[in-house]
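Table 4 source record.
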Amino acid sequence: MSTLKCHEEIGRLFSLKQKSEIQRLGKLFSTETNNYYYDTGTGKVLQLDDDSFKIMQCLFELSDVNDVNEMLSVQEINISAINDFCQTVINEQLFRAFKPERLYTPGHNELLEERVNNELSQVILELTGRCNLRCGYCIYNENCDLNRDFNHSDMSLEIAKASIDYAAQHSGEKIAVTFYGGEPLLKFDLLKWAVEYSLEALKGKKITFSLTTNLTLVTKEIADFLAAVPGMGVVCSLDGPEYVQNAYRKYANGEGSFSRAIHGLKLMSDAFSKSENSISINAVFAPPYSHEKLNDINSFFSGLDFLPPNVDINIGYVAEGSLPNTEIKLKNKYDAKPKVMDPLWSWLEECALSRPVIRDHINNISSSGIESSLISIEKRYLSNSPGDFYPFNGCCTPGARRLYITTNGELYVCERVGNSPSIGNIKDGIDFDRLKKYYVEDYSEGSIEQCQNCWAIRLCSVCYAHNYTETEFNANEKNRKCNLRRSVHLKDLVLYHTMREISPEKLAFLEHTEIY
């Protein structure tokens, strides 16, 4: 490479730094063994030698270094190393990420109506707004403003039928029918009817069913029916051993739900062990946070000998805002500010690095979270040259990937979105003007200023959930979460490449993993 071309390239990079553009173009990160660079434009990750790392430090970390001469004065780097670095940057087309003016995916733009009208993947029926529990961290509590409160509304048979008919008309070869609440088993009679009607109305399609239950209402009759439904999957909400479960998952009178829930889980496990269908478990990690508590939860689930093998057990924190003061902060005399800790991630990471495999036949809570983290990096956007578009963060195609139908027939993009603008009703169908305004235009316009300056724009998993009020997109709320999401994706990068260095065999499962 000529000296002139090298000079031009390194000058370009320092010019980007001086314009405060360099930070959006990539991210420098390190494992205990090596230093790496993630490139925003291409998705490539390059392992850096010592000289390249020193140059990268000058570009990303040393604020008082703003040109080549200053770099040479503070770093022991020779001209040959700079030349090699510039050659790599040019060959790999690094530091060239386009600055977007909008978020874009075909499914949100020119293909939106086609996909909404013809490719519905999942219809979610809110069978009831009632629940027989009053869990302390539930987003439907009266003390939490993230979502609606519990109510006494039940879905009518007419709305359930119309919802399934809509799915028949607007889905492709595959369709998932999900039952939601409240506690959907409070309307088991309607659920049973809806399953039987779906099998008739959706005949010829590949149908799957699912529901989430707190287990306390499960009977042998219910368990046997669910296990016999073709393609049924049941998510069982259970937080762990009795002292963990009863701390938050209670009845309105304060009584703990453990004994009834574990009885329901046994009935479900017995029924599903004779079926090709599957159950999974969702656990909530609530205060007080500690590794000891996680060890207790893990020991509890791995010790349930009645569970089928390889049950997917997911664990996550309570929803932000559902409980006061849920952050764990640690301060010592050297800290100017308390540090926000992440005990769940540090525990999961420790398990991932210490166990011989990510997942084995033992049911434990460490597998699912780590697998999803590793998958997000393995399946990231990757191109030889920078792409000129950036997707709608982690948002699915609104109204096509999922369609949430409330008890009164209102349509929403997802059950997780919470308070948000409706996109129509089951009688009249999708209102495309509202869909485009709130979930395409407003989301893109309200996000782009932050997104166009973010190195993690292609990794971002932020979606529509909890970023709306009932009447509009809440840009401030969405953008407030950006630092947290960047820290999550940085930890994902570090863990993935640590595994590549010390235990590459643990990542073999990624070769057979697909993203839906």
